[in-house]
Each structure stands twice: as C-alpha cells, then as structure tokens.
Amino acid sequence: MKKTLVALMVLNACAVSTAFAAGDAGTWYSGAKFGWSHYADVSGDKNFNESLNASNDFNVDHDNVGGGVFGGYQINDWLAVEGGYDYLGNAQFNGNHGVNGAKMKSQGLQLSLKTSYALTDDWDLYGRFGAMGYRAETDVAGKNNFETGVRPLVAAGTEYAFSKNWAGRLEYQWVSNVGNSNQIGLSSDIHSVTAGIVYRFGQHDDVVPAVVAAPVVAPEVKTFNLKSDVMFGYDSATLTEEGKAAINQMYNSPEMQSAKNNSTTVIGYSDRTGQAEYNQELSARRAQAVADQLVADGMPAANIQTEGRGASESVTGNTCDNQTGNALISCLSPDRRVVVQISGQ
C-alpha cells in the first residue's frame, strides 16, 4: 500500500508539468526493454508451506531476467497511453533432503497512462500507472498449474531523447500479487528494472520562423522650387530684394521649419543658351547665393551643401526648339531655377 501511495504521488507531480523530451503530440512510438526481475513477498498454499516448514535447507532464487516490447500514443506534451507485453521471468524454490520444491513464472499484457516531467529539453522523468493482465504458471510438488488475472501496475523511470526519433529509457516497475496461491499454489509481487530503447514515429522538424527583413522606407524629401528670373537679375548671381523676401518666406514656412535641421541640398540650374561651362559656373554661384541667404535666415550652415548642374535636367525639353531671340529666352524660363531639397532625416 505504501509503495502504491508513493508512486501515485510521483505521478500526480508529473501530471502538472510540461514535458518537452516526450514525442510530438498526436504521434505513435514503440520500443523494447530488457533487464532484471525479482519475485518478492512470495506466499503459497498449504502444501507449499508444509514443504517449506519441513526443510531446513531450502534454496530460493528470487531473481531472473525479464523484458518486453511496448508501444504508445502521445496524447499531448506530458501525457501518453502505453501498452505492451512483459515477460516477468521466474522464481525457483529448490528443496533439499527429499523436500519438494516449486517454480513460478509469469508474463502479461499491460495498459497504462504515462505522465512526464521535463528536466531539460531532452530529458524527462516519467511515471506509469495502469493494470496488467497476467498468466502465471507454477510447478509445485510435481504438479503444473496456470492461472490468469488482472493486477495493478505502477512504474517510474527516466527517458532521454538522443534525437527527434530515438530515445532511451531506464525504468522500475512493480506488479502486485501475481498468481492466486489457492489455485496454483504460489503468488508473488514482481519487481523489475529494465533498460529500453524507443523509436518515435512521425516527429516534426523544428520550424524556424523565416526572418522577413523590414521594408526599407526611403526618407521623404521635401522639395522647394525657386524661379531664377524672380530671384536674380539677368545673367546675375546676386539675389534681388524680391528674391531675399521669397527665400525668407520659404524658410519660415511650416514645411521648412519642421525640417530645417535636416540635411539640405541647394541645386542651381540654367537654361541651354550660352556656353555650357559658363552656365555650369553661373548655376553653382546662384545655388551658393540661396544657401547663404538660408544661413542668414537661421538654417545651420553645417547642414547645407550646394551643387551647380548647368543646363542638365531640363524642364522644358524640346518644347522651345522653334523659338528664337527673346521668345526663346522667355520659353526657357522654367529651366532657370534653384531647387532646395531637404531630406526626411
């Protein structure tokens, strides 16, 4: 009774934890075990007891080899149902000086619930409790008898996963009161210690979540366009009063005030008339003039850089190809500009 109580306490502790070394939920497993069996608390009928009392030299061999095969279904991480066949070995009682001896051997089919407690990701402690349908056979005083029945079974052990499919286990098992002494002359509790190997079917590969790179969002660029014809006199890089006022108004706008501490690029452009080298130089000087005015208005000088791009990146394209003289100069007015770009960071 004490053995049963201790075993059930262990099983109850196992049931409240999560096991990781056990197989995947919803999968099957099978295995085999081999080890040592021990017959204890042997009792006999009247004939056996009389033979025992009559002998002063009675050799008893309680120990033998045992083993079995088993299979199970993993219900969840910590609970499985397991069944199997056990060969429980035999015990011999050899009487000397003419006293009759006895022999008992047994085997059975078992069914139990297996609860597990994880010590690590690969190592479990477990307990099993259930019942065994046994067949016990005896040879007492030359008479051979057998008997069948059902007895409670309790086991405790440890299991280690070598891989996702293979595991090893070491287990102690106790089956109570196998055999009916009134029918076959003997009965005994049977203890066994076995080592086993387990194969788990249908284990799933560990799923590593794919790492998805966050999309790179280009910083928003704020662009301000200034017409050179308004900002400068003809063929000049000196700001007019009207030009200074336009830059001051731009600088104080909410759009620029919210980004004035960001990196800023001032780009000057010219139209296509005149020499390319001169147009490049003029566009650079106009960009610098606008940058200087922005600094004068309060923008940090360290944040500003300037470029002159001459007649490149024309706005008008070929729309003015048929124009000449003042008409051409007027048509190309959109190309003469200064662009202020402020990055989003």
Topology:
Blueprint: H1 2-15, E1 27-44, H2 46-54, E2 58-61, E3 63-74, E4 79-95, E5 102-118, E6 123-140, E7 143-161, E8 166-178, H3 181-184, E9 186-200, E10 222-227, H4 228-231, H5 241-251, H6 254-257, E11 264-269, H7 276-297, E12 304-308, H8 325-331, E13 337-342
Parallel strand pairs: 11-12
Antiparallel strand pairs: 1-3, 1-9, 2-4, 3-4, 4-5, 5-6, 6-7, 7-8, 8-9, 10-13, 11-13
Helix pairs in contact: 5-7
Description:
The structure is a single chain. Strand 3 and strand 4 form a beta hairpin. The two termini are 77 Å apart. The protein is built from 8 helices and 13 strands. The chain has 345 residues and is α+β, with helices and mostly antiparallel strands. An 8-stranded antiparallel beta barrel has the order 1-3-4-5-6-7-8-9. A 4-stranded mixed beta sheet has the order 10-13-11-12. The protein is rod-shaped and about 135 Å long. 22% of the residues lie in helices and 45% in strands. The protein has helices at 2-15, 46-54, 181-184, 228-231, 241-251, 254-257, 276-297, 325-331; strands at 27-44, 58-61, 63-74, 79-95, 102-118, 123-140, 143-161, 166-178, 186-200, 222-227, 264-269, 304-308, 337-342. It has 2 domains: 2-200, Porin (Beta Barrel), CATH 2.40.160; 222-342, OmpA-like domain (60s Ribosomal Protein L30, Chain: A, 2-Layer Sandwich).
What can be said about this structure in brief?
The protein is built from eight helices and 13 strands.
What keywords describe this structure?
eight-stranded antiparallel beta barrel, 60s Ribosomal Protein L30, Chain: A, 2 domains, 345 residues, disordered N terminus, alpha+beta, four-stranded mixed sheet, 8 helices
